[in-house]
Amino acid sequence: MNSREIRPGVFSVGAIDRDRRIFDELIPLPEGTSYNSYLVRGSTGTALIDTVDPTKESELFAHLDELKVDRIDYLISNHSEQDHSGVIPRILSRYPSARVITTPRGKELLRPLLHIPDEKITTVQDRETLSLGDRTLEFIHAPWVHWPETMLTYLREERILFTCDLFGSHYAYAPGEPTIGDLGRVYWAAKRYYAEIMMPFRGLIKGHLEKIKPLPIDIIAPSHGPVYRKPEQILSAYRDWVSDSVKNEVVIPYVSMHHSTAAMVSHLERALTDRGIVAIPFNLTVTDIGELAMALVDAATVILGTPTVLTGPHPAAVYATYLVKLLKPKARACGVIGSYGWGGKTVKEIAGILQGLPVEFLDPVLVKGLPGPEDLNALDLLADKIAEKHRSYGIL
Ligand code: FEO
């Protein structure tokens, strides 16, 4: 069996990108990533499922050459983002008989992004099938994992679900070992990936998990990170992450200019710990935002710590607040603490950014200068309030 063969006639032909350290110029990649592409050989047709990032085109072609692939009939595009679709034009010029198979919305994106002519694209409806002779591909529309056009592809006879970004991990596995039996370290990479990419679509993913529940699945093959040979592990992790249940945790992203806000964060951290609550501060000047995103997956409460710069929150706190707004975590309460010199609109501006998130705003604790005993007492009262909330959520 070829080391790329994950099941007879099904090959992992993508590329590992061990050195990449940032994605979308936003997401840190401490463990690199991979762009998985899969070749499925049937008795009457051959399909390639997704391609790779354009920077890794030569690796994809080398793997196809290694397998002596002289014809591709169908190029399945589960997702139009360029790390998966970027090599479609080159595949089409090398394998001119290939047709791109995607959702109607996928076609609308592939056209402007890659200038693929309409006549090369066939759109498929939800649950439509495509025969490769002795093998059948079934297309399952699953919008917003991670763009509106996304779909999953199910290889019925081998019980493999190709999920592109969904269930993926930015994790550069060892060459020749593209599959894992147990989550192990990949759990954390997959949770980080969920936090950074999938969390805003938590509600929709719940529906997708229900939709694929009846499918017998032996392998989940995402397009980033290793293939899962025990799919129940990643499915169960996702069920937990997308659920409405929160943990007894308070995430405190903060920045401090002259140690006053930092002193408040330290005091609040101690006060929460004394009350049996897990406090997780993140100093935004040194924080890997992926770690912050991961903490937001489960936390019941978020408290932002910021000094007032001129008239508003510190730009680093604005960035973190905006990130919280974008990622839409399931936190139920949030608040602001911090120090100021002469006034300003810090709380109003942070509340403005978070507008629309279904969270309860706790009373802020803002202190003029260095916190004194009365200010520390106000933080104790905030910790009491958080404890009361967590008890009402049934987590304390
Ligand atoms: Fe891996 Fe949304 O692309």
Would you summarize the structure shown here?
This protein is of the alpha/beta class.
Number of domains: 2
User: What's the architecture of the largest domain, going by CATH?
Assistant: 4-Layer Sandwich
Oligomeric status: single chain
Radius of gyration: 24 Å
State the name of the first-level CATH class of the largest domain. Alpha Beta
Structure commentary:
- There is one protein chain.
- The protein has 2 domains: 4-242, Metallo-beta-lactamase, Chain A; 247-390, 3-Layer(aba) Sandwich (Rossmann fold).
- The model has no long low-confidence stretch (mean pLDDT 96).
- The longest helix has 20 residues, at 373-392.
- It is built from 12 helices and 26 strands.
- It has 396 residues and is α/β, with parallel strands linked by helices.
- Helix 6 runs antiparallel to helix 7 (231-242).
- The termini are far apart.
- Helices cover 34% and strands 25% of the residues.
- Bound molecules: MU-OXO-diiron.
- MU-OXO-diiron (FEO) binds at residues 79, 81, 83-84, 146, 165, 224.
Q: Top keywords for this entry?
A:
12 helices; Rossmann fold; 2 domains; seven-stranded mixed sheet; 26 strands; 396 residues; six-stranded parallel sheet; Metallo-beta-lactamase, Chain A; binds MU-OXO-diiron
